[in-house]
Amino acid sequence: MTNIIGSLLIGAKSVRDNPAFRATNPMSGEPLEPAFAIAGAREVEQACALAQVAFDAFRETHDEARAVFLEAIAANIEALGSALIERAHAESALPIARLAGERARTTGQLQMFASAVRNGDVHDIRVEPALPGRQPLPRPEMRLRHIPLGPVAVFGASNFPLAFSVAGGDTASALATGCPVIVKGHPAHPGTGELVGRAIQAAVKTCGLPEGVFSLLLGGIETGEMLVRDPRIRAVGFTGSRVGGLALVAIAASRPVPIPVYAEMSSINPIFLLPAALRARAEAIAQGFVGSLVQGVGQFCTNPGLVLGVEGPDLDHFIAVTSAALASQQAATMLTPGIHAAYVKGTGSLENNAAVSLAARGIVAEGPNCATPALLVTDAASFMADARLGDEVFGPSSLIVKCRDIDEMILLAESLEGQLTATLHIDPRDLAMARRLLPVLERKAGRILANGWPTGVEVGHATVHGGPFPATSDSRTTSVGALAIRRFLRPVAYQNLPADLLPPVLR
Ligand code: NAP
Predict the structure, then answer these.
(1) What are phi and psi of 324, to 5 degrees?
(2) Ligand 1: residues whose CB is within 6 Å?
(3) How many angstroms from the chain centroid is the CA of residue 50?
């Protein structure tokens, strides 16, 4: 199971007809062996046909069977051992310890969905008994359950080669509901993807499930487009750029039968420093902020890219201590040459903006694809006058915005696009101001934090990793946590059906 041969996984088969591209080691810039196949129209067709055939049998599997399947995937991923972590390191430049933690998160996520399946969360059953004597009209008996949508296309993310990729949250939540999954793997980590894909393929076999429950395709934009256009695909999960997510939303909406796209895209995760908190602990906040900003070379969707404070000596002090802390941070290798180029362009255009000043840069490093941390400063009026200042710069860069007073801070919060997170740094004396901000932040963000940092998303039952556009394309749900299964389900009501005809879970 640990050999990487560069193949697509279509149901039970390994297909390696046209080896066409190699992964790049971002630390050396060198290509990695082997070459990987690319899926064309024929492979997309085969994967979709198998998924369609598998759907009815898979969706009617007993909850226990799907729970065991998810646990088998987790066990198979664990069994890949260090080979998985080493390949992921070579393909992503992410540190070994971080990747080991991410593997635990990935298997923990699969196990959490297994327990959600066992709890019956997938069905979310509601029963209203008949009231034959109700006036003026009798009430019918109504029983409701949720059923899976059908085959789901999942686009793996570059920045979490395990937890948001082939067996990541989108795949795990879709499989939990009984939806077959076709993954379009991210081209930055095809070897990692193949190893994990084989772990899923093996679990399909040992659990006696139809082979079409899972396929893994590789390819460029055309492959992804073909997949989303295929009429057998009924929903899409995506994590990546705003441009990519919106392209898939447009394709899905223009199909003869439109389908939902759950795209997690762009967020700058504003941090609100309220005056009493800033006065009381500027140094501690600065340390926490810089740690969160540079973690994972800033390549988190929850990276704190915007900081708001009220102008004055306390904010100036905070900027000074943050600048000193950031200046001692080393540049580090980013995930891909493309992501590095986007970072250089994004920080460059901020630096060249006349309304922005550079407060600090980290220590420049030799070697390809290294991002030097950056801290920039502007004022609220300039920020609100220039939409470009609110664009996500993916990487270890953040913009501090000086507000005249709390009213201007609230005004700026109102002007923000949708966000995954919004964070308040508050002391008890800030509560009145925080109460004024809170309703605005509820409208803007999927998760609101106090006195913490948005990086590090807990996988749990009360987690929301979502938010209004452009954080996601559909703010009504989450891509992390138990509630993620809702994305791939729809309710069906059964009115006055004889018991013998009812699905077993509703009897
Ligand atoms: P990406 O360019 O959006 O690519 C993600 C996946 O979507 C890849 O498999 C890509 O395929 C596919 N794709 C992109 N555009 C498509 C289109 N028009 N039609 C069909 N498929 C399409 O994201 P990325 O490569 O991970 O990183 C690029 C930028 O995305 C980063 O610089 C950052 O700004 C942003 N990003 C954001 C997050 C977040 O969590 N918010 C995470 C990662 C990246 P191909 O690569 O094969 O073309």
Answers:
(1) -65, -40
(2) 155, 157-159, 184, 186-187, 220-221, 224-225, 239-241, 244, 247-248, 264-266, 301, 339, 342, 392, 394
(3) 27
| Separation CA 465–CA 473 (nearest Å) | 12
For the chain, the straight-line distance linking the first and the last C-alpha, in angstroms and rounded, comes to 42
pTM for the model? 0.96
Q: Whole-angstrom Cα distance, residue 497 to residue 141? A: 8
Q: For residues 219 and 195, what is the distance between their CA atoms, to the nearest angstrom?
A: 17
Q: Distance (Å, rounded) from C-alpha 347 to C-alpha 374?
A: 7
How far apart CA 146 and CA 399 sit, in angstroms, is: 44
Which one-letter amino acid corresponds to residue 400? I
Residue nearest to atom 25 of ligand 1 (CA): 158
- Where does residue 102 rank: exposed (0-12), middle (13-18), buried (19+ CB within 10 A)? buried
Q: What are the tens digits of pLDDT across the range 346-404?
A: 999 999 999 999 999 999 999 999 999 999 999 999 999 999 999 999 999 999 999 99
Expressed in angstroms and rounded, the spacing between residue 287 Cα and the centre of ligand 1 is: 31
- Ligand 1 test: best mutation among 24, 38, 241, most atoms within 8 Å of CB? 241
Note the Cα 482 to chain centre separation in Å: 14
